[in-house]
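Deviations from the work plan: none for this task. Representative record:
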Amino acid sequence: MVDAFSVMNLVGLVAFAVVGALKAADADLDLFGVAVLGILTALGGGTMRDVLVGRTPASLQSVADVSVAFVGVGLAVALSSLVSGRLRDHPAIQLPDAIGLAAFAATGALVGAEAGLSPYGVVVLATLTAVGGGSLADLLLTRVPVVLREDFYATPALLGGVVFWALVRGGLSADFAAVACAVFVLVVRLVALRRDWSLPRV
Amino acid sequence: MVDAFSVMNLVGLVAFAVVGALKAADADLDLFGVAVLGILTALGGGTMRDVLVGRTPASLQSVADVSVAFVGVGLAVALSSLVSGRLRDHPAIQLPDAIGLAAFAATGALVGAEAGLSPYGVVVLATLTAVGGGSLADLLLTRVPVVLREDFYATPALLGGVVFWALVRGGLSADFAAVACAVFVLVVRLVALRRDWSLPRV
Amino acid sequence: MVDAFSVMNLVGLVAFAVVGALKAADADLDLFGVAVLGILTALGGGTMRDVLVGRTPASLQSVADVSVAFVGVGLAVALSSLVSGRLRDHPAIQLPDAIGLAAFAATGALVGAEAGLSPYGVVVLATLTAVGGGSLADLLLTRVPVVLREDFYATPALLGGVVFWALVRGGLSADFAAVACAVFVLVVRLVALRRDWSLPRV
């Protein structure tokens, strides 16, 4: 189980970095900006999560995660000159991106539970870990984060946090709950993409 | 005195959440966005304060504060379909909002003093706790925070931080200074609203 | 060596505060906004650095740094009514600004090494300390941070972080490496200004 989880995390880091770097290239940033937005999309959510619970961010301590994100940036730079059109809406991006959403939500919920947060805190950390990096990238491009506007993207992560909490509360181990959370988020996100779900407005 | 303070804090949480959620609904965010902006306006300032002094944010640990903020979000959703026009400029919002400003500035100054910050640090924490949540919400909507542009809104909180520091420096207890700070902020903010005060430009 | 370093840091604080306050005055913020953007440009990078490694921010604990930044804000307010045109492109701003970039990058690298971060972490902290405050100020004005778009400004700081890390890795003392890093950043930034360097786009 742990191995599947690590793989999901790796896939997510690459996919998020690709998405962030492509977004930056579309916005005509220079190479530094493209790299920053790729890295930030991949690692920003986890960094905010760690800062909130008082940990030194894993992203600043490990070499592996940043290196993996750089692979994503490199892929995006290579791809952006090969293909035209909105690459981000392509299934080849959307599937690994959904895998990343699922893995990051599960990690966030785990860290929240380990830090002894309230149920709300666990759900917030699951959601923030999953969508925080992309939202930071949107902010740096002075865009309203897309998750606040219309996408059914943060909602699966949030519900995944609720599932995690309910399972732990019900007596299951945190590791099992994390795997169930990730599977749940992945399925809901893929169904939402397929059915074009969105939330109502007020 | 402590009871009055808790009541002020509760009133502030609800009022800030209403203001943030209405802002999001005006900007045509979806339901997730409306909830996020309401919660963030209510709890964002305190969360930044806690992160800056190295505490795990109270907002992630207690259930009560988020629940109270959700009441504000619910109120805003209910109200926004009932009333038209700019609800935020209505006295029914402005008074509880001023009470929140006062309570949050006092809490920020207290936390700053407890953390052994410099006088500047105490004033910064009073101001940030009071206006940080609303400014974060403005940023997420890609607006220049209104407190930086024209409102006489951050200034009462900042002056309240100075009052707090001067009283503690003068030998009074931090608890008394916090109450005096809150009363001072509330009075200055209400007078500013009444007289339409603003700061000069450069 | 330490004395030269302190002087560079002081020069940087004043220059960054001047740049931030002028930016705010240009954007027609009120006096509070001008002060906030000046202080934030000077101290925001160091504050983010300290939060990331779990320190209480030096900016909230020491009186000296904020006082020095206030001098910069005062200078900017005085200058903005005396001169017209884009003061920020004047060598009288660009030289002290480059000195600040160099001093802040070196401080960031030092703090990163002390906190036991990975090589990436050291480079990130050098860059963030140097350009984080100005980028926060840009964000508050809802502008894409200029360092992400076109300026050869973050790159010298980033390369300075690499130089620092390579020297420490090569067995030199962190203090010596910090001085070398600062000299390197200053020289590269001044050459970049002179030659009008920029990074390629993707």
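The interface with chain B takes residues 51-54, 112, 115-121, 124-125, 135, 139, 142-145, 147-150, 154-155, 158, 198-202 of chain A (CB under 8 Å).
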